[in-house]
Amino acid sequence: MSAEWGRLDARMIVVRPLNELIGLVPPLAALVFLGNFDTWRTVTSVIVVGLILSRGLLSWATTKYRITDTRVELHKGVLFRQRLAIPRDRVRTVDLTAKLGHRLFGLAAVRIGTGHHEKDREGVTLDAVTAGEAERLRRVILRRVVAAEGAPQDDGVLISKLDNRWYRYAPLTMSGLLSIGVVVGFLMNIAHELDLRFSDVGLVRSIFTWVSRTDVGEVVPVVGVFVLVLSVLASLVGYLLQNHDYRLTSHSDHTIRVQRGLLTTRSVSIEEKRLRGAVLHEPLLLRAGHGARVSAVTTGLHTKGGSSQLLPAAPREEADRVAAEILRQPHTPTAAPLTKHPAKAKTRRLVRAIVPTVVIAAFLSLMTVVANWPVWLAVIAIVLIPAFVLVGLDRYRNLGHALTDDYLVSRSGSLDRNTVALQRTGIIGWTIRRTIFQRRARVFTLTAVTAAGAGGYRVRDLGNQQGIELVDATVPDLLTPFLKH
Amino acid sequence: MGVSESEWGLRAPANLVSKRAVWQWTVQAGLVWGVLVAGLAVARHVLDNPPGWLGYVLVVAAVVGVVHTVVMPQWRYRVHRWEATADAVFTRSGWVTQEWRVAPVSRIQTVDTARGPVQQLLRLATVTVTTASAQGPVKIDGLALDVAARLVEDLAATTQATPGDAT
């Protein structure tokens, strides 16, 4: 039995500060090369680095863990001593992450996820142990038996792996545009912190001069093409960083495992018993290119931060196949034929898409007349109205639900279309919500409450009759005593 | 207001909340609006040259505040209802937007009562029933103390009798 206390790897004293320093490299470099460098700042930086290092030392010295037959125990902390114990049958997921610093030293951080939302939201994290020990911990913790040292490696059955042709879906995810925004925001922030003036940088100044001297008709296409090219490149790089060497495997200990990443590698194990369904993500562009992403609905995983992702942007057929295999269904429930919602739902989608845009357009037009605001603001707002009509129509077209033998399926959205398949036995309650407009339109919004994933999944604007029948059919007997007849 | 439509398939939960809950909501809303309106009025007096629109905002806030404080509690009282059977907890809440919730007793994890300052004055309590979901617990607001205590006891007894980890 490995009831001995284990320690984090001593190399962590260096690795943790290293990981934190890697994040600090750009601002530090900027400080050294661009900032007005004075003694006061140098002293501060040295003190900060010293503090980070000693924190690494203390946290290594005070952290110990052990796995007994029944529990995973962790002791840590200097000023606030913490003693955490998780019953092993509460462990839902094990997530191994190795950042660049970890990789250099052959280490990995182990996060043990429980289904608890209220307490210890973070689960337990061991940051970090050797990659071998991490692998052993994963096997031991999830298999519920203490495995012998050096047991044969279980490679699992391959469900899906990265195909280089999938890179063509990367630009369709808009992630590039998003990361450009993040980088620009980050740079602005640093510049602000360091009191840099953009006009001091020659490149920025010449761009600014060009923009102010050139005709608008020329600037817009050039800037547009530039941003487009940049965002395509950024999304390809992002796809490479996150999904390099992606593999989805199923293992004999009834877990499925997702491995991916170039610099930071992640390996997430999900217990099949805890899987409550899957979500098919099809943002507008990706959908137009017949692509999709798949994520898991499960207890014990953060829904944010991508740890629930099962399949990165890939062809729709691959997404369907992966969803079907993960859920152990002959056909994926996310592709089940959907029942439409009543025509009133269409009116509601249109009203909700159009009214805000019309109000904004009217306001901007008014301000153009009254307060001399630039005309182009109002023009843009008015031009966008038809686009929002199309979005509203598409949202209604996508709206639908289905009930299969084991799953409740709900689809909604246009710019970000999602199809959720939720295991019927995983539903632990219902919420029925009706605004005053919905009551008049005889529709309601249903939320299937579950312990997994986001905690609740919505079916919007169901017809009154249709909706109550759906609720009663999905989980028999729960709502029956409260029906009128 | 509540359920006048005949084609709506759900019946109302059996029990009303305490009549004193009307006072609870009145006081709570009154306090919030009172502080807001008083703040605006003070600002208008203290500022040397208060902007012209401040007066309009003050009047609108006062009117909306009074209407909300008078109408909302009565409306809420007609909507808020609850019922606990051996198998499920069933609630209805809200006013303009109404919410019906049902949670099976077998999935209940904890049952708590909480009493805010206004509730303490009025001898009322809120019963919170949590399940394993992150979606938020089922709450029954404005129960008389003895009713709340009995409900908690009943639910605790039935919950303990049900095995499993409720996920």
Word description of this protein:
The complex is a heterodimer of chains A (485) and B (167). Chain A is of the alpha+beta class. In chain A, 43% of the residues lie in helices and 27% in strands. Chain A is built from 13 helices and 20 strands. A 7-stranded antiparallel β-sheet of chain A has the order 7-6-5-11-10-9-8, with helices on both faces. In chain A, strands 14-13-12-17-16-15 form a 6-stranded antiparallel β-sheet, with helices on both faces. With 167 residues, chain B is α+β, with helices and mostly antiparallel strands. In chain B, helix 1 (21-46) runs antiparallel to helix 2. Chain B has 2 domains: 15-77; 82-160, Pleckstrin-homology domain (PH domain)/Phosphotyrosine-binding domain (PTB) (PH-domain like, Roll). Chain B is elongated, with a radius of gyration of 20 Å. In chain B, strands 1-2-3-4 form a 4-stranded antiparallel β-sheet. The chains are: A alpha+beta (485), B alpha+beta (167). The A-B interface holds A 90, 115, 117-118, 299, 428-436, 439, 442, 447, 449-452, 454-456, 464-465, 468, 477-479, 481-484 and B 5, 7-11, 13, 83, 85, 87-88, 90, 96-104, 107, 130-136, 138, 165-167.
**What is the CA-based Rg of chain B, rounded?**
20 Å
Tally of helical runs of chain A: 13
How many separate domains make up the residues of chain A? 4
Number of helices of chain B: 4
- CATH topology name of the largest domain in chain B: PH-domain like
Strand line-up across the major sheet of chain A: 7-6-5-11-10-9-8
**Low-confidence region ranges of chain A:** 145-151
- Helical content class of chain B: 40-55%
Specify the overall morphology of chain A. globular
**Residue fraction in strands of chain A:** 25-35%
The best one-word shape of chain B is elongated
Strand order of the largest sheet of chain B: 1-2-3-4
Q: What distance separates the N and C termini of chain B?
A: 36 Å
What is the H level of CATH, i.e. the homologous superfamily of the largest domain in chain B?
Pleckstrin-homology domain (PH domain)/Phosphotyrosine-binding domain (PTB)
Number of strands of chain B: 7
Average residue pLDDT of chain A: 83
Instruction: Decide which structural class fits the backbone of chain B.
Output: alpha+beta
The largest sheet of chain B is: 4 strands, antiparallel
For the sheet with most strands of chain A, the description reads:
7 strands, antiparallel
Largest interface: A-B, 34 and 33 residues
